[in-house]
Amino acid sequence: MKNTKNYDEQPVNTRIKIAGLWASMLFVFAYVDVFGLFRKDVLENALAGKVFTFEVNQMFLLLTTVYILIPCIMLVLTLVLKAKTSRMLNIVISSVYILTIIGGVVGESWLYYIVGSVVEVLLLATIVLFAVKWPKTN
């Protein structure tokens, strides 16, 4: 007997695709950082008030918060801004984050961090790709 049922294939709007990619990137970003707390070296440095070579102080925490807030806000801005503005912001901000993530993985030897960073870069590169190919109306 032949299956004659077809599944409904509604096209997904570019804005929704990009917002979903931002959300996925943020989850990977958060989990990689949380998993880092299981590392003895990271935990000892955190307890000593250091992250990499940076001292954990008000300015460090403020800048780190801003760094995380930008992708959080991009998720919403992608959905509410005019298409032209959303497209440009997604291209620029994703590209900048790709560079910062690549910079952060340089010299890293832990595989979980490298894999997480590669996934983050791939998600961000997909945002750039979708934004560059944003459909135009006639």
Give a nutshell description of this structure.
Helix content is 72%, strand content 3%. It is mainly alpha-helical and 138 residues long. Helix 4 runs antiparallel to helix 5 (111-132).
Verbal overview:
- The chain has one domain (14-132).
- It has 138 residues and is an all-alpha fold.
- The protein has helices spanning 14-36, 40-47, 58-80, 83-105, 111-132, and strands at residues 50-51, 54-55.
- The radius of gyration is 19 Å and the shape is globular.
- 72% of the residues lie in helices and 3% in strands.
- The protein has five helices and two strands; from the N terminus they run ααββααα.
- A two-stranded antiparallel ribbon has the order 1-2.
- The mean pLDDT is 95.
- Helix 1 packs antiparallel against helix 5 and helix 3 (58-80) packs antiparallel against helix 4 (83-105).
Topology (SSEs and partners):
Elements: H1 14-36, H2 40-47, E1 50-51, E2 54-55, H3 58-80, H4 83-105, H5 111-132
What features would you highlight for this structure?
single chain, 72% helix, 5 helices, 138 residues, mainly alpha, two-stranded antiparallel sheet, globular, 2 strands
